[in-house]
């Protein structure tokens, strides 16, 4: 791969997924795109770049999906789900006692383990949510991972990663060497393809937004832009949950951290966020890395 080809791919990926590669990541591109090129019957990276420059939309999608990270597992990192069960939902249940509805957005739903983990948490709350309208929206860049999430079928290895055995027995049915999450939980979640770099106002407002292990791949201006737009989609008393390596501190005043609760944030005055202009150069094409 020539330096010119690498620079083209760096810019292509940033414009189309938000992925901000440093100058020394040629090995990463080669390891992920050479197999894709061969599968497409191309001679290598040079011909792949030529096809991209020629406007091959199918190849554009395949390249972005090949470069995005879909690492995820059930109840990943544990702490956010403890916050959800012990702090977020008790406050939401109290605050929405009259409305009796809750809307949750998993902004990088990947193959479904995060939204299904939340669905299991909600089911475990039992009578406290009887009669409530519960809506979980799970979005991701990759149509391929969304299809897997909709099916809710996982290998033995996948269900062994973070999923308590009692929940496996309670919420999954085994078929041969795979496990499928039950229809009731699958029906709780709407899976949609979405680009975080695009306008997502059509999703409406949410009580809780999980946006974990996604923004680490973006440059600072893009992070700020997304935070400011997330602030417009969250209820004034809602919650934002970020990954352990992510923070709003030093980037935006649209959210404030909750003391002693790592990764958990509350929105500041949404009118102030709405008044801020979006930063230039942060609204291209397709969503991004599933982190979850």
Q: Indicate the CATH architecture of the largest domain.
A: 3-Layer(aba) Sandwich
Q: Could you name the CATH class of the largest domain?
A: Alpha Beta
Q: What is the N-to-C order of secondary-structure elements (H for helix, E for strand)?
A: HHHHHEHEHEHHEEHEEHEEEH
Mean pLDDT: 86
Give the N-to-C terminal Cα separation: 32 Å
Strand portion: 15-25%
Short overview:
With 292 residues, the protein is of the alpha/beta class. 41% of the residues lie in helices and 18% in strands. The chain has twelve helices and ten strands.
Question: Can you walk through the features of this model?
Answer:
It is a single chain. Strands 6-2-1-7-8-10-9 form a 7-stranded mixed β-sheet, with helices on both faces. Strands 3-5-4 form a 3-stranded antiparallel β-sheet. It folds into 2 domains: 65 residues, Orthogonal Bundle (Chemotaxis Receptor Methyltransferase Cher, domain 1), CATH 1.10.155; 197 residues, Vaccinia Virus protein VP39 (Rossmann fold), CATH 3.40.50. Helix 2 crosses helix 4. The two termini are 32 Å apart. The C terminus is likely disordered. The protein is built from 12 helices and 10 strands. The chain has 292 residues and is of the alpha/beta class. It is an enzyme of class 2 (transferase). This is Chemotaxis protein methyltransferase. Keywords: Methyltransferase, S-adenosyl-L-methionine, Transferase.
């Amino acid at each position: 791969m020539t330096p010119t080809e690498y620079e083209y791919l760096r810019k292509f990926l940033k414009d189309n997924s938000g992925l901000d590669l440093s100058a020394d990541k040629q090995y990463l591109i080669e390891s992920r795109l050479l197999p894709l090129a061969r599968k497409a019957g191309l001679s290598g990276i040079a011909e792949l770049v030529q096809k991209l420059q020629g406007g091959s939309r199918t190849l554009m999608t395949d390249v972005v999906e090949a470069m995005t990270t879909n690492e995820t597992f059930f109840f990943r990192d544990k702490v956010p789900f403890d916050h959800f069960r012990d702090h977020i939902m008790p406050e939401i249940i109290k605050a929405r006692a009259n409305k009796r509805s809750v809307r949750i957005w998993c902004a990088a739903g990947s193959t479904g383990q995060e939204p299904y983990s939340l669905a299991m948490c909600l089911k475990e709350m039992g009578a406290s949510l009887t009669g409530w309208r519960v809506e979980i929206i799970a979005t991701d860049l990759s149509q391929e991972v969304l299809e897997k999430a909709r099916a809710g079928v996982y290998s033995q290895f996948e269900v062994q990663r973070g999923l308590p055995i009692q929940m496996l027995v309670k919420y999954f049915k085994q078929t041969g060497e795979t496990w499928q999450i039950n229809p009731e939980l699958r029906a709780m979640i709407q899976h949609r393809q979405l680009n975080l770099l695009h306008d997502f106002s059509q999703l409406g407002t949410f009580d809780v937004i999980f946006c974990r292990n996604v923004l680490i791949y973006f440059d600072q201006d893009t992070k700020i832009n997304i935070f400011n737009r997330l602030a417009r989609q969250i209820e004034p008393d809602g919650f934002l949950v970020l990954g352990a390596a992510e923070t709003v501190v030093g980037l935006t005043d649209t959210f404030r951290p909750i003391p002693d609760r790592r990764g958990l944030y509350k929105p500041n005055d949404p009118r102030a966020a709405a008044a801020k202009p979006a930063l230039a150069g942060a609204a291209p094409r397709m969503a991004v890395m599933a982190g979850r």
